[in-house]
């Protein structure tokens, strides 16, 4: 008794020490940190250490007074202090909130004005014009007077130079370069 003491007379030992195990499940990650469960401090059985988050908490960046995700609107997270939905943006405070409200009101006013003056654009009859290097459409409208005037300005040498430079799409040697 003097050497080992009397276990029956003292307080009962915790179950973890008696059996060397407990029914509490603890899950660890590869680095040995607790992911799930409760850490039991062997020296002080009554104290339980809470697992710490790997993320920094309550860190305010770019002049914000709240954290990202403290505000939610229209399926978007944001900062509650300035109601911005752009992460890592600079806090504009109440002035930014007022500016956003004014911009929203201006947008609504402009849209209402546009709906009120909903004039359909005047449709002009467009002529089908052929451009150089394209197929000539079957319903091409040409002004015969302007065509005759343009042909008078073009010489035979101009036409021959055009024919020499023109790419013939059916020519098998058209992609061959010197």
From TrEMBL:
Which key words tag this protein in UniProt?
A: mRNA processing, mRNA splicing, Nucleus, Spliceosome
- Pfam families under this entry? Slu7
What does the similarity note say? Answer: Belongs to the SLU7 family.
User: What's a single GO MF annotation on this record?
Assistant: pre-mRNA 3'-splice site binding
Q: What does this protein do?
A: Involved in pre-mRNA splicing.
**Oligomer and partners:** Associated with the spliceosome.
Q: Does the keyword Nucleus apply?
A: yes
- Protein name, entry field: Pre-mRNA-splicing factor SLU7
Task: Provide the GO biological process annotations.
Answer: mRNA splicing, via spliceosome
Read off the InterPro entries from this record: Slu7_dom (IPR021715), Splicing_factor_SLU7 (IPR039974)
GO cellular component terms, alphabetically, are:
spliceosomal complex
| Cell compartment(s), UniProt | Nucleus
Chain ranges of the Pre-mRNA-splicing factor SLU7 domain: 1-70
